[in-house]
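**User:** My hope is that you can spare some time for a protein that puzzles me. As I understand it, each token names a local backbone shape. I would be glad if you read both lines and explained how they fit together. The protein I mean follows directly.
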Amino acid sequence: MLSFYLCGMNAVDLHAHNYCIENGRIEYNRSKTKGKRKDNAFISIRVIPEAKPLLYKYRDLSKRYSTSENLNKALSKGMHEISQLTRIPDITYYWARHSFANLARNICRKSKDDVALALNHVDQSRKTTGIYLAKDWSIVDEVQIAVIMLLKKLDRRDASLNYRISKVLKRLFNKSKPFLRPVFIFGKRVFPRLKL
């Protein structure tokens, strides 16, 4: 859920811990594209209340996992167990990024440009226009808030699925309280073609 709360932040960026948190925002250069863009793929995302305890909990991922590949293996194992529990095939960590984008565009009705900004994408066909525009991070905030508000609505509807997934996560991570609420990703409105 941390990736989802942070507009689809990649595991490699969380692992590398090349981000800073200032004024309630997480700021970093996206590892995948930082060497390919003049702005070094810089992004600034508001840290919403739901993300704060998760950021604190996972602040030292590089101490727990020696490489981002090891972190990805652990994430894949956890996603596989969630996949078995929910009977949704092939769930991956990257689903958080895809789900965030799909919800923002298709249900919250945010523009493709605004969703692209939240994902830190650059539209090659509008690259020249981008030179003239300063980045307005409040647009990312609006996209993020819209998706989170939608999830809160879905959460109230799908409490039983939330409970089932929380049980698996407790077992996986041996915690007394669930720290994730993945019902948001797996709600019926998110994946209407899947039967839960």
About this structure: Residues 43 and 120 are 6 Å apart (CA to CA). The longest helix spans residues 137-157. Residues 172-196 have pLDDT under 50 and may be disordered.
